[in-house]
Hints:
- The strands form three sheets. Strands 2-1-16-15-3-4-5-6-7 form a nine-stranded mixed sheet, with no helix packed on it.
- It folds into two domains: 290 residues, Ribonuclease Z/Hydroxyacylglutathione hydrolase-like (Metallo-beta-lactamase, Chain A, 4-Layer Sandwich); 45 residues, no CATH class.
- Helix 2 packs across helix 4 and helix 4 runs parallel beside helix 5.
- It has 368 residues and is an alpha/beta fold.
Amino acid sequence: MENRKEEKITLLPRRLFLRLAALALAAVLALGLTACDSNGGHIVKPSTGASQPFEMHFIDVGQALSVLVECDGQFMLYDGGNVDDGSLVVSYLQKQGVEQLQYVFCSHAHEDHVGGLAAVMAKFPAGHAYSPVTESSTKCFNDFVKYTRQQGLQLEVPSVGTVWPLGNATVTMLGPVTQYSETNNTSLVLRIDYGNTSFLLTGDMENTAETDLVNSGANLKADVLQVGHHGSSTSTGYLFLNAVLPEMGVISCGTGNKYGHPHEETLSILRDAKVDVYRTDLQGTITIGSDGQNFTVGTEHFVPDSQLNPTDPSSSSTAQQAYIGNVNSKKFHLPTCANLPAEKNQVPFSSYDEAIAAGYTPCASCIK
């Protein structure tokens, strides 16, 4: 984690009643609540930067997802980003000393999750490869299957309740608990436990599957949550978040993405639950290390909390302003764009969809 901002996070007993009350009230009123003191779930101390026996890397693959997990010298990969991210993911794994992967998981068959896995399977031998389906009509998924078979492996569909060892960590398959026609809801949901620390990977699971998972009675409480569907408002509902009660939520999304991820509704829900937000679009690759009791969090870029979750009432109005339109050109921009119009020609938009609905088109320079 060289040249990265690092924080040491020591987990203390959760103030469950306060957090449950905040979520319940937010669910009824659908209003933002003022955050409690910073010692509610953890305290932050300077980090020694020492490497940890367990590490989870949220690789910055833009508007996609790829998570490398290492424990005691063993590795697993959960998703590989888009097709164009394949070489980036391979390079990142090589830099982390990966020579082989115990497990490769494709959360679901959308390109921004399976696309880069063909390049990974072409480079690294794997023990097992898993997916919620074994067939798909897309070339990127079929390439993943092709390189899996070239290793002499069959793509496996795991069952709920399956447990895999990864060093001294335990990986458990929690969902999906039923079949869905919506591909996002077929996402493989994995719980990873290392010592007294726990992590939840959800892919693009949306509200319907979240509710079914909660109702299944699965043990969802986790310290770190991969926030579903890149922070879309279709995921991370109050019921689900109430069951997980994470200390940290990590959102993998791309800078200026056309979907407006993460959505303000999701950020507000996370704030209501007192979840510390980390984002690859602002912070780059995010690495979380654990010694079984405490976390060390490393990010490529320092970003103040007010920008990570701009729905926080303490944030400035500029931080909450997602896009800026040009009343003359009818194009809209990120606030950091070099082509912003003069202030008198600016019109603010709180989301991508709002700007589109107003008849504006995205700036080709800053919104990819």
